[in-house]
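Just scan my protein:

——
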Amino acid sequence: MLYFSYGSFLDFETLKKYCPNARIVGKAILPNWEVQFNFLSRTYNGGATGIEPAIGKIVRGVVYDVPDEEMIVLDKVEGTHEGIYFRQTVIVVDEQGRPVKAATYRTTNPRGPYKPTKKYLSLMIKGAKEHRLDEEYIKELEKIDTLD
């Protein structure tokens, strides 16, 4: 299954802990949505990302190909069974400008904004650099205020 990641799982090493057979498909954008730190994570003790519709905004991320049985593991990690996040199909645009159907996760009850921890934000930045996402986006991430 194709999975569009925009948060801490931009860091491929972190994703591989839960989805060892995942493979990178490539960069993609999700037009008319934006990333928000709209969930207070117990795992990271700070803000975690979700996406919400936003005309004129863009979510930058990566598409991975994840085996179905590992997506079930990812559902558990994302807390879908607890109602923390839910999986949604979105249409992203790949590097060649083609529409691609992919699963992503959204916060069930968005709140905040909450400041992320350095650890959480560093995973996003590391992944954004690893996948060579837009330089301006990386600079925006680096300016985000953290809790610590």
Remarks:
- The longest strand covers residues 46-65.
